[in-house]
């Protein structure tokens, strides 16, 4: 090991161990040892069980609920800082609170900005994440942010399907930019769903902008939470004459009765990454691992190589 280039170590928060193990395997090093002591009231304390002095430390942690995940990450960053790690990079495949990226009504917080500040205050020197709900969240950080796109792993899968009359669709107006980026790469048409919400996670009405008749549709979104939007969009498209409807969603939150909605919908399959572990198996859900992508970019960051080639979108 040269003095100019310290080696890296990869650690995991308790809910992201499986993904971290896959990332470490792809990176080519064993996952670092960390233990969590619990007090009887539920409070916990992480402890690095090996020296990290002067090293680059990657801490893999998707910050999905409960808030303990975020708290674990913050405590581990603080522990790494106090153990004299040289670089501390939280690897956050799913960045929680990203939907709170602006004030959409009076007297509400901007949660994504608060989380960014918490991570930096704890001691993060660089952030690595994937498919943020809103690109501008990168600007909430004063530190470098490597914002990876899951399109680099989804696009080869979509191409391998060899679908005729392929049309990319966005389930809402906000995702139209993402849909256009996919369609440009796949040289396909685009359809946009226009929906009006009654309340958060509850759809009032939905209409299609574009023609789906006789076409194989691939819906593209950054996350799937309750599954209501995608199920409704798929059913509407089949009703309007689509041959098949698939969906690509980076982050499988799948809360409430989302699994039932997916099973009962006209969706042929739902393709997701392992940024969030699935709560249960489903024969309609296919998982494509993001571990090789993260491992490769982490390797590039560690060896100061350009990562711009990893951005297809």
Automatic annotation (TrEMBL):
CDD domains: PRTases_typeI (cd06223). Keywords: ATP-binding, Kinase, Magnesium, Metal-binding, Nucleotide biosynthesis, Nucleotide-binding, Transferase. InterPro entries: PRib_PP_synth_CS, Pribosyltran_N, PRTase-like, PRTase_dom, Rib-P_diPkinase. Gene3D superfamilies: 3.40.50.2020. PROSITE patterns: PRPP_SYNTHASE. The keyword ATP-binding applies. It comes from the Bacteria. Residues 9-123 form the Ribose-phosphate pyrophosphokinase N-terminal domain. Its EC number is 2.7.6.1. PANTHER family: RIBOSE-PHOSPHATE DIPHOSPHOKINASE FAMILY MEMBER, RIBOSE-PHOSPHATE PYROPHOSPHOKINASE 1, CHLOROPLASTIC. This is ribose-phosphate diphosphokinase. The lineage of its organism: Bacteria, Pseudomonadati, Bacteroidota, Flavobacteriia, Flavobacteriales.
